[in-house]
Amino acid sequence: MISQLFILSSKGDHLIYKDYRGEAGSDVIDVFYEKVTALTGDQPPVVMSHKDLHFVHIRQGGLYWVVTTTADSSPFSIIEFLNRLSSLVKDYCGSLSEKAIQMNFALIYELLDEVLDYGYVQTTSSDVLKNFIQSEAISSKPFSLFDLSNVGLFGAETQQNKVAPSSAATRPIQSSRDPGGKSEIFVDVIEKMSVVIGSNGVLMKADIEGEIRVKCYMPSCSEMRIGLNEEFSVGKSQLRGYGAAVRVDECSFHQSVQLDEFQSHRILRLCPSQGEHTVMQYRLSDELPSAPPFRLFPSVERDSAGRLLMYLKLRCDLPPKRSVSLLPEGAGLSQELSSPDQSAELQLQNRTVFWKIPRLCGGTQLSALFKLDVPGLSSASMLEVGPVGLSFELPKWTGTGLQIRFLRLSPVHPGPSQRWVRYVTHSDSYIIRI
Amino acid sequence: MTDSKYFTTTKKGEIFELKAELNSDKKEKKKEAVKKVIASMTVGKDVSALFPDVVNCMQTDNLELKKLVYLYLMNYAKSQPDMAIMAVNTFVKDCEDPNPLIRALAVRTMGCIRVDKITEYLCEPLRKCLKDEDPYVRKTAAVCVAKLHDINAQLVEDQGFLDTLKDLISDSNPMVVANAVAALSEIAESHPNSNLLDLNPQTINKLLTALNECTEWGQIFILDCLANYTPRDDRESQSICERVTPRLSHANSAVVLSAVKVLMKFMEMLPKDLDYYGTLLKKLAPPLVTLLSAEPELQYVALRNINLIVQRRPEILKHEMKVFFVKYNDPIYVKLEKLDIMIRLASQANIAQVLAELKEYATEVDVDFVRKAVRAIGRCAIKVEQSAERCVSTLLDLIQTKVNYVVQEAIVVIKDIFRKYPNKYESVIATLCENLDSLDEPEARAAMIWIVGEYAERIDNADELLESFLEGFHDESTQVQLQLLTAIVKLFLKKPTETQELVQQVLSLATQDSDNPDLRDRGYIYWRLLSTDPVAAKEVVLAEKPLISEETDLIEPTLLEELICHIGTLASVYHKPPSAFVEGSRGVQHKRLPGSAGSGESVESPDTGSAAGVSDAPPAVIPSQGDLLGDLLNLDLTPPATTGPPPPATSGMQLGAMDLLGGGLDSLMGAGFGAPPAAPAASFSAPVSGGLDDLFDLGGGVGMPMGAYSPPKTVWLPAMKGKGLEISGTFARRAGVIQMEMTLTNKAMSVMTDFAIQFNRNSFGLAPAGPLQVLTPLSPNQSIEVTLPLNTVGPVMKMDPLNNLQVAVKNNIDVFYFSCQYPISMLFVEDGKMERQVFLATWKDISNDNEAQFQIKDCHLSSGKTAGLMKRKTHHCTAVRCSLFSY
């Protein structure tokens, strides 16, 4: 049971404070802030306790979302709830920031009144809440297509920004009450890849965690049908059709998804409510349908002058136009890179060399030679040269091969409506051992 | 000073301005004003002065304004109870409003105003709202009952709201059901004995039906409530499991974990051979793995839970080792937790993979993580015997890197490996000795010294090595000093000629120049031992040490059971029972897992849990402190006839027992022997001396009357297994000699000859004192009575249960093995008295030890009680200590 809920800015200013059960005073806010700022990196921040009170918090949008509880409640439901709450607030206010919260505090208090009663979570569905919420959101910024500060889903400056107006994603959902609102729906397939390649080039581990996320800005959308690849299969043994099946080990769905057509036609049927939802989550481990997108051929040796030589050759086995940034580890100075637009940097405190590659075309290969002066380099310390980690972002590509076959809305909405389907694969942890 | 004055005036001005706005005629302006008031309230300004003005705005049709006013009321009503009464009329009126939103709002707000006078007015509206036609109002009213109960429990009972609430469990709307369940669960918690939440198959059925329809949050309430139910039989348990299983694929991880909790609990009831049991095990793995794809905070919580689940049922995740491999960008707290689970899952099948990973981790940058990884390699070696050799070579590779902290950590774990596999990997000692100079941490130094002392006869310059440590004796930490003392004494006993000077030096350093009583006492004991009886000293100090246990850090079984009942909650994150951190009356009941199918007991006693329990229970685990102490107490205090499991100790007892250890000698004496185990708390007050007297009286009193008693014979080896040879027997102590009395019966067709007997190593070193006396051949259908005298000088190995004895009997046909359990009482000697001072001194030493040493100490403690081993009283205690400290 949730006792209190409060939202703090990163500086510790009280933005929202609501007491549900009268079990503790508001002075605990400062206690919390002291505790959370005193945490060191290696302490789990999840649960902190102060006398009989337990704090559970998350950080979203640069803000602390904190819940206190006195009983033996479930931190899972609290964290899950806080995540939902923050996305609700984002849906209602348009964006998550200190300013947006301050301007919409009345709306947020209204929300808090409905989502929690006496510390029991009541509902977090924006559809249900729509009926109860009276306040109108105040947008902190006028909505503009060309506002460059609105960074979309994909973070960095990829060409995606030109393809889909992702700034649309920072609209408050209730602006749909304005007749001028554009009706749009975004379906994003987002995958996170974690790969470990052994020093002998053998793929030791490869996992993909993916999700289909729907952002809906339709004033009224009664039903949406998302068709996945027909050869999509779940579980180890089940194979459907010919050719390379798109397979996942396990998947779970949002509770509003109707699965009656899933078994036969791989169609998800849902009535999307306003705002952002994760419709489906899936996971695949070990058996990737294709080879991992990047391979690295490292060689590490000691030259006659006692310097550490790291020669790295990176190969990308993908169709062209992919962007990658890289971070291998070592210690010292001097570098030779194969092309001018890359850069490399040595970070002494992490004992890491960063190799940044703004863009890497599929089917090509890059190489770099790092010469590092390491005081007291011995043959044993060669063992210490750590693994190479890659972090990258691959737009328009999914590791599992999952595709959205079609996206149908019914009844067909009058007026102009736009549908966007986007794919992206991120690196979660892509490790190549040396 | 002028500043503050200025500040107050503006504040006054602000409030004045707001007051004017609040009394404005324009609705918009009013609303804006109330918003401003609430904004000030949020940042912590005191706007209570505006109470009457805000309350005046309450009478409005504008729902938005009304909500804002209610928000203000909730905050300030408590500080202004008299004024709050002004609002009551509006509340009561609002409860009759045609708009269900307003009705619900009024009931909800009234419940939040914790003012006694208001609660009186609340009853009537609440009663109506509980029967309202709109489910939104009903679900709000259901929660309101819980609110009211918190303010005035008596009122709620008198008004009969609890019965209405119970009726709501059968409501048509699942949301209402969920809230009613949540409210009832909370109320029931404060009345542990009431039958409020009367769970029977009918209500369970209703809950399960509602489960499919309500929101995810409602599902959590219902699942948590289900977890408190104990099904009547395995069939009911299976049917509930079947209906809960679909929740495992829910996207909300809190729902998943609540479902896992229910399943883990009800699984206990299912027979293991049931197909469904296997299916369920398979179904549990994927959702648990999926939890790990969440953000690090959730991952951490998930891992803490998985850690519990893996300890209880390792088979669920045994094929999922890979998901616990560490990612380079995991936060350190997630990494450490994953590492822990990896070791728990390590088995012969996956050890190669695990070792390769651990070796990688040991070259990472993060020092803490690297240390833990190196330690993990050592734990693998101890856990999976087949891998020990590879682990050792991996560790040697790591030592070659010469990275200081890696080397130190590796030496600490190699010492543990030596403890588990003595005389097997001594070839690495030379490599270790090369790194002597780089050791600067006490633990590593102590470990190295132990190794040098233990293998002094194989290290040519052992005396030089130890002497080098001795130079800075006073600057070392106690741990190193104690170790050094023991090591040098060992060295002296092994090479007496060259090291006489050294040992004298260390003894005088320890006894004369040290302020540390532990060190001093140990020094004196060695000194006396060496000066009175060097042979005995050798026997004591160089005695064979018991092997260390496989898993040293398992959670104590009763606690684990309780934590399994709390999966997904804070308790599972802290790994502490809720009673340890939830205040007062709430949540003090200890939850238990239901007993397994078929067994009559509802609660497995902690000791039988691993042995007598289910067939594929986790590998034998040595009972941790609490248990052993429990054992000890039971063995001493219960009549000797009960060799079976001791009565199930309550959880309170377990906690008490652990406290005892923490508290050291005083409370141990008082509590352990002054009072029956059922009331440990009371006995803490027993004065030390009294407790001590009791102890000695007990020691004297227990042995003698027991000598005559022997339990009736039981069949140890049935004829079916013995190719016709049936052995039944018992143990007895006659005239100070332990005897094993057996009846051998030949049920086969042929004559049996050439009988011989052998014992496996056991906890107390029991061994046959002579050959098995079967002189004449045993013809078919003939029986013979044999009495075998036993002594306690055999090799020692800790058994589980402690009094287990594995026996091999050979005849002309084959060799047969069986195991039996002997009453501990037969080990007690009649003259078990001991000088008090000596006992006290040695005992004090033991209890001052740190926790890591408890395990072994306990095992010896119990042997300490069994005077069978106490051939030389003082010597024995020293033996206990030596092997302790040498650990």
Q: What would you say this structure looks like, in words?
A:
The complex is a heterodimer of chains A (434) and B (887). Chain A is mainly beta. Chain A has helices at residues 28-38, 75-93, 98-103, 105-115, 126-130, 160-163, 262-265; strands at 4-8, 14-19, 47-50, 53-60, 63-69, 116-117, 120-121, 183-197, 203-217, 223-228, 232-234, 246-248, 250-253, 267-270, 275-285, 294-302, 308-316, 322-327, 335-337, 343-347, 352-360, 365-372, 388-395, 404-410, 417-432. Chain A folds into three domains: 2-130, Beta-Lactamase (2-Layer Sandwich); 184-290 and 397-432, Mu homology domain, subdomain B (Immunoglobulin-like); 294-395, Immunoglobulin-like (Sandwich), CATH 2.60.40.1170. Chain A is 14% helix and 40% strand. Chain A has a nine-stranded mixed beta sheet, with helices on one face. Chain A has a five-stranded antiparallel beta sheet with strand order 2-1-5-4-3, sandwiched between helices. The two termini of chain A are 49 Å apart. By secondary structure, chain B is mainly alpha-helical. Among the domains of chain B are: 233-345 and 559-583, no CATH class; 348-427, no CATH class; 441-532; 714-826, Immunoglobulin-like, CATH 2.60.40. In chain B, a hairpin with a 2-residue loop joins strand 2 and strand 3 (737-746). Helices cover 56% and strands 6% of the residues of chain B. The radius of gyration of chain B is 35 Å and the shape is extended. In chain B, helix 14 (234-244) packs antiparallel against helix 15 (253-267) and helix 24 (442-454) packs parallel to helix 26 (478-494). At the A-B interface, strand 2, helix 2, helix 4, strand 7 and strand 8 of A face helix 2, helix 4, helix 6, helix 8 and helix 11 of B. Chain B: One of its GO terms (cellular component) is endomembrane system. Chain B: It is found in: Endomembrane system. Chain B: Keywords: Acetylation, Membrane, Protein transport, Transport. Chain B: It is a peripheral membrane protein. Chain B: It comes from Xiphophorus couchianus.
